[in-house]
Amino acid sequence: MAVRNFDLTETRPPRLMVLNPAPVRRRELRRTKQRYAFAGVFALLAPFVAALCVLGVSR
Q1: 3-state secondary structure of 51
Q2: Direct distance between the N- and C-terminal alpha carbons of the chain, in angstroms, rounded to an integer
Q3: CA-based max dimension of the chain
Q4: How far apart are CA 53 and CA 46, in angstroms?
Q5: Distances in Å between the alpha carbon of 12 and those of 7, 17, 42, 50, 56?
Q6: CA of 14: how far to CAs of 8, 10, 38, in Å?
Q7: What's the DSSP call for residue 5?
Q8: pTM, 2 dp
Q9: What is the pLDDT of residues 1-56, one digit of tens each?
């Protein structure tokens, strides 16, 4: 018979690994898509807004 010693001095166990994660809900998927879409639009618009500001200042 095997005997195992466990360290029970820690109040919180280390991070537990999830073996079977829960499926992604539609609402969470929609929010994730919206966040990436917003980030993409911002990434495309930021250089143009910066260029317009530079052109406005230099005139």
Answers
A1: helix
A2: 85
A3: 85
A4: 11
A5: 11, 14, 41, 48, 57
A6: 12, 9, 35
A7: -
A8: 0.49
A9: 566 666 666 666 666 666 666 677 888 889 999 999 999 999 999 999 999 999 98
